[in-house]
Structures are given as structure tokens and as C-alpha cells.
Amino acid sequence: MDRPPAPVRHILSVCRTCHRYAARSPGEPTPGERLADRLEALIAGTALAERLTLRRVECLSGCRHPCNVSLSAFGKTRLRFNNVGPEQAEPLVVLARRYLDSAGGEVRGEAGPLGLEARIASAVPPPFQSN
């Protein structure tokens, strides 16, 4: 008996340590944590939450241009954004929906109207996959 393919799990990673070198009071969350909190609030309880995992990670290798976020899924182009703040949370959620609906993760042109085009730091295509 053939099973239907499992749905692809999409991941929205947010660097929780960005901006690690910014001055802040003890116990004050980093801008990355504030961004992750805002994204989590926007995604929670929506249909998007069933297909998108929000991960708070230690680093996305963009410390020169904090805060960093990436969208990734198996078989799709991985997009990394930098210089993102809580004020870009809503456009990121819109772009994440478009990314989920795309066949290969190619949504860079759609990022422009959302004000995210200049924040794309990298677009890494998926590795070659053999059948």
C-alpha cells in the first residue's frame, strides 16, 4: 500500500543572539529574541503554524549585519536575510507563506514589494538530489 508523501516541513530560523554586541540592560532580550517573539505571536494559532517551525538558533553567520533570519525546507532554495528587526515581522510572515506555497523556494522577486529585497543576504539552492 502506497502512502501519500509526508508534507515538507518548512523552517523559519531566527538568530536569538543577534545583536550580541549591542548594549542592553541585564535580562533585556536581544533584538533577535524580540523578533522571534513577534514572529511566534504572528504565526501561533494560524494554518501557517501547522507547516512552519520557528527555530531560535545561536547563529546564522551574519554577525556583521544582525539580525539574521532564514527560510528553508528540503528541496528548496534556502534564503537568509540580515538587518531584520521586529518591524519586519509581518512582511516576513507574508513571505514565509509565499515560500511555503512555492515549488522551489524562489520568492526573491516577491520580497521587493514587502521591503525585504535589500535584506536578502544569500540564496542557496538545494544540493543535487538523485532519485
TrEMBL record:
InterPro entries assigned: DUF1636
Name this protein carries in UniProt: DUF1636 domain-containing protein
